[in-house]
Structure formats: C-alpha cells, structure tokens
Amino acid sequence: MPSNELAFQNVGELRPRAEKILPKQAFGYYVSGSESESTLRDNEESFKRYRLVPRLMVDVSKVDTTVKLLGKEIAFPLLVAPMAMQRMAHPDGELATSRAAAAEGIPMVQSTMGTVELAEVREAGAAGPLMMFQLYVFKERDFVKQLIQHAERSGYDAIVVTVDAPFLGKREADERYGFKLPEHLRLENLTGLAEAARMERKVHSEEKGSGIALHFADHIDSSLTWDFLPWLHTVTSLPIFLKGVLSPEDAHMGVQAGADGIIVSNHGGRQLDFAPAALDALPGIAAAVGKRVPVLMDGGVRRGTDIIKALAMGADAVLIGRPILWGLALAGEEGVRKVLETIRKELRLSMALMGCPSIRHLHRSMVIAPWDQYPNARL
Ligand SMILES: Cc1cc2nc3c(=O)[nH]c(=O)nc-3n(C[C@H](O)[C@H](O)[C@H](O)COP(=O)(O)O)c2cc1C
Ligand SMILES: CC(C)CC(=O)C(=O)O
Q1: Is the CB of 137 under 6 A from ligand 1?
Q2: For residue 373, how far is its CA from the centre of ligand 2 (angstroms)?
Q3: Is 339 a domain residue?
Q4: Mean pLDDT score of the chain, rounded to an integer?
Q5: Which residues line ligand 2 (CB under 6 A)?
Q6: Whole-complex ipTM
Q7: Residue 82: CB within 6 Å of ligand 1?
Q8: Any bridge partners for residue 27, and if so which?
Q9: What is the pTM of this model?
Q10: Locate the FMN hydroxy acid dehydrogenase domain: which residues (predicted)?
C-alpha cells in the first residue's frame, strides 16, 4: 500500500498538499511568478486551449515512449527542469531529485544555485541516461570558467545557459516574506566565488526584500550578448543549450551563434510578466530552428497529454518544474519518482488513445491550435 504522501491520481493535486507542509517563505519562493503572475497562469492555461484529434484502428498493443536526446535513449521525452535550492523542500534536496530522475530513466538539469554540490548531484544520478548543468553567468568570468570545467569533469553531458535572467523578475511573495535561504543551507557551487562570504551574507541577510534578488543584482553579469556563446565554446567541449528563448528571431540568432539546443521557456512565469506561454511561442520557434538543433520547452507541463501537445507542435522533449518540488517536499526521492511515473503512465495511455505506438507517430495534424480550423470545416 502506498503511504499517504504517495497516494495521488495526478500531479495537479500536489501543490495544496505541499503548501500545508512547507514553511511559507519556501513555498512562496517555489510557487510564485513575477508581478501579476499573468504568464505563470497562462503556462498551464495554454495547454487547455489545444485539442487532440486521435487516429483510429492502429495497433497500439505496444507503445514505445522512448526518445533519443544527445544520442542517449531516455525513457520518455521529459527532463527535470533546473530549480534552485531544493534542500528547502527536503533534506536530501537535489540528491533525491537526481536519484529519482535516474531511476525513471530521464535527464535532470542541475541548477547553478543548488544546495548540494554539483559533482555529488551528478554522482547520485550516475545510473541515469544523462545530466545537464544549468549555468548562471557571474561577473567574475574566471569563476564561471572554473564552474563549467568542474561540471564537465564531473560528468555532465551538456551546459544549459539561462539567458532570460539578466536580473531576477519581481517576485512579490519573496519581497513580502523577505525571502532568505535558511541559515543551515548553502549555495554549494558558489563557495569558490571570490566574494562568496559577502554573497552568502546577502542570501541570508537581514536586509529588507528578497535576499536572492539582491544577490542576483550584485553578481550576475547583465551585460551578456551573443558573443558569449563563442567564448563558452572555447572553455568547454560540451553541447550548449540556450534556455529562455521566446522569439523565432532569438532562436535563429542563438543557433547562428553556436547553440546546440534551444529551450523555449519563460522561466515558469518568474521573469518577464506578460511574456507568452511557452507552448504558444513554440511552433514559431520550432519553424525558425528548422531541425538544425533540438528544441525543448517548459512551463505548465502537468499531464501526459501536455507532452503530446508540445511534441506535436515541434518540441523534441519538455521539462517539468514545480511538481517535482511538490513531490520532493511530500516524500523525497519516492515522491519525485511518483510524479515522473504518473506522467509517464498518462503519456503512454494517451499515446495509445491517439493511435500513436511511438513518439515519431505524433504529428502536427493531431493537434488543433486555437488558430486552426477543425479539419471538417474545410470539407
Ligand atoms: C523554485 C524554482 C527555481 C528555479 N530555479 C531555476 C534556476 O536555478 N535556473 C533556471 O534556469 N531556471 C530556474 N527555474 C525555472 C525552471 O527551470 C523552469 O523554467 C520552470 O519552472 C518551468 O515551469 P513549471 O514550473 O511550470 O514546470 C526555477 C523555477 C522554480 C519554480
Ligand atoms: C536562485 C534563483 C536565481 C533561481 C531562479 O532562477 C529562480 O528562482 O527562478
């Protein structure tokens, strides 16, 4: 019998349960979007605007959900999105998430702002298909170089550069509750930063407002331009994904500048409010990229059918954020595993109901977007 924490039908049930057990500062930081949270809401809403058209009389007695990413087979087209400070949710934090992703056969993206050191997180996920390291670029470029090279030596398979955060969005819950990293936790990857001591003081500080936004404003390099990508290729041989792309033009420029993958994302509605839902931005970006590099997306993925919609609209895989934190808060590694398993089972069943025995059977014609006509309207 599953314990109570693991008894849920779908991942949408988890947020109110996590709210009951997490301290309000931590829950507020995890759950919130920026400003009026219009983009945050639209991420989930957008998926409800798209309809699925099943094809019939196809042999779906066997359904294969696997895909290849960077040459590795993954159990289904989902990755765990980079999320900072996971030990606020559970003492095992990023270690539990990494083990769970590996056990479920999917990649995890580890945040620069982890509360477990990146090599330990990589080690915990050693049984998995692949892991990526998410990079925030600090003003101190030598430190950035060391961080990337340490990630490469530790066995990460790709670098994900987050390009939508020259500053942190205005998250009002963090301001309201004066968000600080709890005293017993550290941003473990940043201990080598020359000003680490000062920065640690800031994330823990008594200054008013969000400690993390203050720290970000002090240390993140907000002067980045496209020439950063050629520089990055000189310090690492790993493939480089750009995370936070929302326009076809930027996707194109990113690929021209040397990106090996594009992640369509509005950072879970936490950066620019009123940015488009990632799903709405996806088709134009997929067209601009034109299969030159993989296109991933995140924001609002909560169901197996959400994965189907994103893939049919041009994504090669999707990432999931907050439900992982809720599963982690409720039951550590087992909670994260149950979240991933629930979505994988939904995906498998919905693929069968769509007449798709494998991922390559998913096709644009099976999704009706808000701007499409229903197929029979043309008869
Ligand atoms: C609590 C939290 C922390 C996050 N930390 C990072 C981070 O460190 N780096 C990053 O690139 N994105 C970060 N993100 C954004 C996620 O990677 C992802 O884009 C977003 O959460 C996906 O939307 P979803 O939560 O609706 O699934 C964070 C998101 C949340 C909710
Ligand atoms: C520590 C933060 C900079 C991590 C982040 O990207 C976020 O909170 O959205």
Answers
A1: no
A2: 39
A3: yes
A4: 94
A5: 84, 113, 165, 168, 212, 216, 267, 270
A6: 0.99
A7: yes
A8: none
A9: 0.96
A10: 3-372
User: What's the gap in Å between 173 CA and the centre of ligand 2?
Assistant: 14
φ and ψ at residue 175, rounded to 5 degrees? -70, -45
The residues with which 241 forms a beta bridge, in sequence order, are 160, 261
Domains contained in the chain, number: 1
Domain assignment of residue 197, yes or no: yes
> By residue range, what is the domain housing residue 36?
4-370
Q: Is 267 an active-site residue?
A: yes
**Is 377 part of any domain?**
no
pLDDT tier at 377, thresholds 50, 70, 90: low
Distance 39 CA to ligand 1 centre (A): 13
Residue 379 lies in a domain: no
pLDDT tens for residues 74-99? 999 999 999 999 999 999 999 999 99
Look up residue 34 and give its amino acid: S
pLDDT, tens digit, 9 for 90 and up, residues 117-148? 999 999 999 999 999 999 999 999 999 999 99
- Of 90, 215, 219, 267, which one is the catalytic site residue? 267
